[in-house]
UniProtKB/TrEMBL annotation:
Associated pathway: Amino-acid biosynthesis; L-leucine biosynthesis; L-leucine from 3-methyl-2-oxobutanoate: step 3/4
Main location group: cytoplasm
Any one of the GO CC terms: cytosol
Record site: Important for catalysis: Y142, K191
Protein name according to UniProt: 3-isopropylmalate dehydrogenase
Length: 356
């Protein structure tokens, strides 16, 4: 098959991990007889430097004309003090919203080989860690009005968190459907003891639950959920939640699977076209040093093969190649066990590509 993939190399460690993901995709193409055409779509800090905006129209267009888009990460200290309206992160939000990607799937799974990289007690780990965070991606506080103003001699600021019924229903649908395909347990996470948007969320969850009698449903407040994730993550199968809560809980989830460098994500809308990225950022502290873990990025490419390109066998092969590399003892610095030597970003990526 021939597929067109928009490639967003990003900032910081972005270009390093993208190079490794593309090497893995090249190995997939070779092994399975496909042609992947890569179309560069600059976005983020590098796009601000080159074009003055974080998401040039041409980049959005390239993504909309591709079968899928692959993104590493954007942002960094260089752009932290510029006009907030054109920060690198705004480019990412505009891309997600411009592509209509309201559902962000973030699978948190502890690969057995990484048992020792998990900071939780062995008896907790032994109960198993395998859940999916279904995060609403283009609503809530990220997309409400942001303002800063002067009032009584001091500065005030506000960010509006708005959810409309249709925005909640479409993500809940993804949550319930995901639960049906997995362990049929769904935990809806909100702050309904304080927020009106959460009260609406909870009412709609209860309404939709009538359509999914096979799914065991629970509601949980977000503060409790943050605690339960480290007390006993085995209790979770699917977590469905709003944008900001999902952002925070998924970083927490990543660390219990070993490292934030391990977790991929898929952002989907109504069609099959999606955006695939690791959940971590541009890691400016280790950029340009060949230290980044490319596995989250490579597993994001595997999710792309599965969800947008209809290549499940190819996705399985990439995941198996990652497991084989970990099995053989290769570790980047973030998942290194005491007394062992770390391999670099390129070393890890090449080993995974070679396993294909
Ligand atoms: P970060 O995820 O970039 O880094 C947090 C910590 O995790 C750092 O110590 C970093 O070295 C480590 N880390 C992250 N990815 C790693 C990897 N693949 N391998 C090894 N270690 C890894 O978060 P931050 O420092 O809060 O943010 C840095 C920049 O990235 C900010 O500008 C932020 O806005 C941006 N960001 C972008 C995205 C995205 O593009 N999707 C996501 C999160 C943050
Ligand atoms: C993520 C990131 C982004 C988010 C930022 C960079 C806008 O943290 O993808 O998790 O909050 O969604
Ligand atoms: Mn995040």
């Amino acid at each position: 098959m021939e597929k067109k993939i928009a490639v967003i190399r990003g900032d910081g460690i972005g270009p390093e991990i993208m190079t490794q993901a593309l090497a893995v995709l090249d190995a997939v193409a070779e092994k399975f007889g496909h042609t992947f055409r890569y179309a560069e779509a600059p976005m983020g800090g590098n796009a601000i430097d080159a074009f003055g905006v974080p998401l040039p129209d041409a980049s959005l267009q390239t993504c909309l004309e591709s079968d899928a888009a692959l993104l590493s990460a954007v942002g960094g200290p260089k752009w932290d003090t510029i006009d907030p309206a054109i920060r690198p992160e705004k480019g990412l939000l505009a891309l997600r919203s411009g592509m209509g990607l309201y559902a962000n799937l973030r699978p948190a799974q502890l690969i057995p080989q990484l048992r020792r990289a998990c900071p939780l007690r062995p008896d907790i780990v032994d109960r198993g860690i395998d859940f999916m965070v279904v995060r609403e991606l283009i609503g809530g506080a990220y997309f409400g009005e942001h303002k800063t103003w002067e009032e009584n001699g001091e500065t005030a600021a506000s960010d509006l968190m708005i959810y409309r019924e249709h925005e909640i229903r479409r993500i809940l649908r993804v949550g319930f459907e995901t639960a049906m395909k997995r362990g049929r347990r769904m935990c809806s996470v909100d702050k309904a003891n304080v927020l009106d948007s959460s009260k609406l969320w909870r009412r709609l969850v209860n309404e939709m639950a009538a359509e999914y009698p096979e799914v065991e449903l629970r509601h949980m407040y977000v503060d409790n959920c943050a605690m339960q994730l480290v007390r006993d993550p085995s209790q979770f199968d699917v977590i469905v939640t709003e944008n900001l809560f999902g952002d925070i809980l998924s970083d927490e989830a990543s660390q219990i699977t070993g490292s934030i460098g391990m977790l991929p994500s898929a952002s989907l809308g109504d069609g099959t076209r999606g955006l695939y990225e690791p959940i971590h950022g541009s890691a400016p502290d280790i950029a340009g040093q060949d230290k980044a873990n490319p596995i989250g990025m490579i597993l994001a490419a595997a999710m792309m093969l599965r969800y947008s390109l209809d290549m499940p066998a190819e996705a399985d092969a990439v995941e198996a190649a990652v497991n084989t590399a970990l099995e053989s003892g290769l570790r980047t610095g973030d998942i290194l066990e005491p007394g062992k030597t770390a391999v670099g970003c390129a070393g890890m990526g090449q080993a995974i590509a070679a396993n294909l």
